[in-house]
Amino acid sequence: MATKRHVAHVTLEALTPLKVGSQSVDFLQDSPVQKDWNNLPMILGSSIAGVLRVKFQDKFKDKTDDIFGKENGSKIIISNALLLDKTAKVCETLLLEKDDFLSLFENLPLREHTAINEKGLAIDRSKFNEEVVFKGSKFKFSIELVEDDKESFNDILSLLIDDDFRLGGGSSKGFGEFEIKRIRYGYLDVSEYSSSLNFELKNVYSNKTQDLELKNVYQKQSQTGQKLTKYELNITPDNFFMFGSGFGDSDADMTPVFEQTISYDTSSISNPKVLIPASSIKGALLHRTLYHICKLEGITVDKSLEEALREAKKRKDIKDLKDLVVPLFGEAKNTDKKGKKGNILMSDCFKANDAQTKIFDHVAIDRFTGGAMDGMLFQEKTIAKDKDSYLIKISIKNEQNIGENLIKAFENALLDVTLGRLPLGGATTKGHGIFSGKVLKNGTELKESK
């Protein structure tokens, strides 16, 4: 039995909110996050191991069963990722009382969701919410390799800086993006170190102090890593827009969604920031991409939708028109379908500065008298236009396997947003949600083809 092992302590910072689901039952929300013995957010080591195994198998298939185990068991040990406190330590014992900073994590943000149909309307009884962890939260976990295999250990560490490395659920709709803040590592005898995550290993790699050996690992990964196609949607509102929160406040019945982020520099949470959820953008782009792919494939509804579907089935191996966009966007699991993960990654967009709001008053009109109906006055609060722009980052994996027409349809949908042809958010039939801007693909601006 080996008495020495490679050990690494990895510190991560959430660049977007994190969703690590649990099977807990809660009367106030549909999907609470995983929490530890101190009721603080955590990421299970099994979740991290699952992500790393899949990525390791894609790049080093021959070594996967030997390292991650099959009949003979695993040679790698991955701990749970625990939340860091304001002193950059994890809480491995039961806390009798939390300080002010850790108390901030007792009330986490809730995200409201609903499914929409082909007409852009909410599907009946499709509304649900899910709890997420603040953007800016930091976690720490350990990786141990119980074998003197330095090359495999470095290969595992190199996976952490992949552009598509995300943890938790909802990675394709904006959640789970991380940045490596620091890696401490060493090759130690089991008697020389503690299993505590607060144990300081000698060697360190961070974005400030770069150890030469791990720097070489990072450089190797940047050359051999998976190639992503990166899009940047840089847009500015033409007037007002609103991504609905699903709730009202003291000023209006309908309000835009705001969300707070956390800062370890100030040990505090921010003021509520304007949020453009990636899930909202993804839904709008999916339906517009479906329109464009049907247009490119020559599938029209000149007579009826049923006839268009029959025509599509003749040309493609599909059961429904939505299947045309599954290679890019994926599909949900239900009683009829097994579900499939898409090849698109998106990130939530937060507005850095405080936003100005505008309240609109509305009333329903009696069609017979032309007068206002009793009890039908309501208000909606929108985000007002300012000089700030919003940058929405989108990445596509395995573009070469998706299909030229589908990629073209997706790019046309992005251009529709920048040209004001595809409004985003809620209340779009009232003139809200019109944006203008530009789309970059791998740094090159896309132009509409004539």
Description:
The protein is of the alpha+beta class. The protein folds into two domains: 4-226, 2-Layer Sandwich (Alpha-Beta Plaits); 230-445, no CATH class. 22% of the residues lie in helices and 26% in strands. It has helices at 45-59, 61-68, 100-103, 150-158, 212-224, 278-297, 305-315, 326-329, 404-418, and strands spanning 4-14, 42-43, 76-78, 81-83, 110-113, 128-131, 138-145, 178-189, 203-206, 228-237, 258-259, 262-263, 268-269, 273-276, 330-331, 340-341, 344-346, 349-350, 357-365, 372-383, 390-397, 435-441, 444-445. The strands form seven sheets. Strands 1, 2, 3, 4, 7, 8 and 9 form a seven-stranded antiparallel β-sheet that branches. A hairpin with a 6-residue loop joins strand 19 (357-365) and strand 20 (372-383). Helix 1 (45-59) packs antiparallel against helix 2 (61-68) and helix 4 (150-158) packs across helix 5 (212-224). The longest helix has 20 residues, at 278-297. The chain is globular and about 85 Å long. It starts with a strand and ends in a 5-residue tail after the last strand. The model is unreliable at 208-216 and 219-225 (pLDDT under 50).
